[in-house]
Each structure stands twice: as C-alpha cells, then as structure tokens.
Write a structure and sequence with these properties.
The protein is of the alpha/beta class. It has helices at 12-23, 35-45, 59-69, and strands at 53-56, 72-76, 94-96.
Amino acid sequence: VDHSLGNVELTVGAYGKMLEDAAAIEATWIGKPNKYIFEVTLDTLEIDRKSVLMVGDRVATDISGARASGIKSVLVKTGEFKECDLDGAVQPDYIVDSVKQIKKFF
C-alpha cells in the first residue's frame, strides 16, 4: 500500500460525480457556500436575517456563504480551520477559539 498520498478519502464530490455518470446528467450543487441553501434555510426559519449568526470553521464555505447571504458570521478556530484561510478577501465578522466563546454574542 502506497501511503505517500496521505489521507485519501471519497467525499461528496466523488459520490456526486459517480451519480452524475450513472444517471447521465449534470448535478446542480446547492450546498455551502451557494447562496440558495442559505436563502432556503432562512425562509424556512422565518426570522430576520439580522438576528442570525452563522457559526462555522471554514471560510471557503461557512463564512463565504454567510457573507453572500447578508448574515453575520463567526469563525471558530477548530475542526477544518487553517490560519491561511484568513489570508483571502472573505473575512468573518467575528473569530473565536472555541464554540464556548460564542455565547458572548447573544
């Protein structure tokens, strides 16, 4: 077994491609950061987006989607977070080290 590739795993993209090939169609992706999924969720909740705080650990999906949807965001430096994520144009409204710190926003 060649371990030089590090951790290799099948993710939603790989499964999606397999389904596209099997069905002979092109999928429409609506997950994060696509604005559509945020809008559907906000409409379902029936609350003012000004009172919503998106909590996430990925700038490219969680924070970017929140920004596109006009809701506030807090980046938690756990899980998928990497310091270099903060080098881009998309920035969270708040940054915390732990989900325990989120309560200060309420």
